[in-house]
Amino acid sequence: MQQRSHDTRKLLLTSAYELLERSPTARISTTALAEHAHVSIGTVYRYFPDVDAVLDELRMTAVHAITTSLSTAIGRAMDQQPEDAMATVVESLTAAFEKHAAVLRVSYTSEEIEFGLAWAEVEGPLRPLGRIIPARLRPDLDDAALDDLVFIVMGATASLCSRIALLRPRRSDRTRMIAVTARMLLAAIESA
């Protein structure tokens, strides 16, 4: 019984995600979700009180996946040269935002995405890991100055990666944008 309940909940979440991917600007309804999942509307309400609860769960899942992806990238970057390390972080975070774009677009306003305000949930738990590259490049900074630098660089990284992932013009070169972003962030760390 528990497995069936788990499977139904997962089906509803997967169906909601598919609806978001199909029509990223449209608001999904419980009726559309029930139809897409091939379940009754009562089944939807048995697992979620409303569509916002479904979207909240999808958002939390996306935040967890983005956090995990960024944490893994920072771990890989620790043994790389500075420019490669920064490119690894930028590429991984951009790819994570792209992978969860459908959820992020309905969870945050374009202003929150544009200015990096939506990523506090991701940034907070990763701040200790975010110190690794700046601390390696700037051993001359005391803890307070390093914390300030990390705060600024993490915000800039989130904002720039989200812009590349979610707001990039069609004809833009993603690879070049990631390389430019990595160099900009590295220059900011080295010159601070």
TrEMBL record:
Pfam families given in the database record: TetR_N (PF00440)
DNA-binding region: 29-48
Keywords: DNA-binding
UniProt keyword DNA-binding present: yes
InterPro entries according to UniProt: Homeodomain-like_sf, HTH-type_Tx_Regulator, HTH_TetR
Entry-linked SUPFAM superfamilies: Homeodomain-like
Gene3D superfamilies registered for this protein in UniProt: Tetracycline Repressor, domain 2
A molecular function GO annotation: DNA binding
HTH tetR-type domain segment(s): 6-66
Protein name stated in the entry: TetR/AcrR family transcriptional regulator
Native organism: Rhodococcus pyridinivorans
Classification of source organism: Bacteria, Bacillati, Actinomycetota, Actinomycetes, Mycobacteriales
